[in-house]
């Protein structure tokens, strides 16, 4: 008679997709992770790519990295380092904002508080419309520089 082996049980991974950015943020495993705006990510990846090129003479850049950099360059609202840093300082002055919310505000560059609170519903009770409009106007000043 063949012996039966006891089946070992593996823990099931938590299903992906339980994250939600609605009126309350439920970011799962990403809750405490630093979040970058598109402009910050663009600066970071371009700097890494440039350092690789300088260090090796001829850096091997994957197609995925190249396409990601192209995407970020196309959709980044702030192009130079000083403006990216200024926007991050502005947004960082609001401790009531989660890192994710700051990154969204820095990436979306909404025209007004209504648009911002529609696209980022978790801002609803964190800031008044007037104060958010003022902040968005300040952020907007760095877009055309």
From TrEMBL:
Residue ranges with Polar residues bias: 1-10
Tell me where in this chain the RNA polymerase Rpb4/RPC9 core domain is found.
28-145
**Gene3D superfamilies associated with the record:** 1.20.1250.40
Segment Disordered: which positions? Answer: 1-26
Which Pfam families has this protein been placed in? RNA_pol_Rpb4 (PF03874)
Q: Which UniProt keywords apply?
A: Nucleus
Q: Where found in the cell?
A: Nucleus
Q: Which family does it belong to?
A: Belongs to the eukaryotic RPB4 RNA polymerase subunit family.
Full protein name:
RNA polymerase Rpb4
Upper lineage is: Eukaryota, Fungi, Dikarya, Ascomycota, Pezizomycotina
